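INPUT
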Amino acid sequence: NAGVMQNPRHLVRRRGQEARLRCSPMKGHSHVYWYRQLPEEGLKFMVYLQKENIIDESGMPKERFSAEFPKEGPSILRIQQVVRGDSAAYFCASSPKAGSAYEQFFGPGTRLTVL
Amino acid sequence: GQSLEQPSEVTAVEGAIVQINCTYQTSGFYGLSWYQQHDGGAPTFLSYNALDGLEETGRFSSFLSRSDSYGYLLLQELQMKDSASYFCAVRDSNTGKLIFGQGTTLQVKP
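OUTPUT
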């Protein structure tokens, strides 16, 4: 039973380019969370999605960032026109259901470096 | 809003016991979780306390006092591999999203 998968593991982009980060949840999990971790800091919630729906995007920057979780395929976090401040580790986590009672399982993360 | 505070660094020797404290301020409280993260790795779930008291899982225990808005993670018989960052986190009751503390870096010395 594969865990949460993320790719790529490392991504290098120049300022102004686009970054696409992918997350495949654990089998049977339909709830996906994205978190960002800046160096030497804790994880910060970005967005929570269910299949084809964004449920909570209160942690997403207002511009350049978007997320989706289509009916088929992985969840995608998209960052347009990247800037150096976007350099961070981006983790996704999945759970079988929503709510406080369910543990989230984290993927290995994508480390984005913006040159 | 929600905020959590934990010490930034703790150092201990192999075989010792260490306690990492976490205090929180939340608009609604639905449990305190603890995660371990090794350098360059993913956060790994360690424990979850929804009610007051002590939860024990092997060498790790976690404690919660809701009246004091306080919890701690206790690591016993420390091993070198326990050197990592430890995060406390609270859960949102509706969505389950996690709000993390800044993390405590534990260094275990021989």
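end of record. Residues 87 and 103 of chain B are 4 Å apart (CA to CA).
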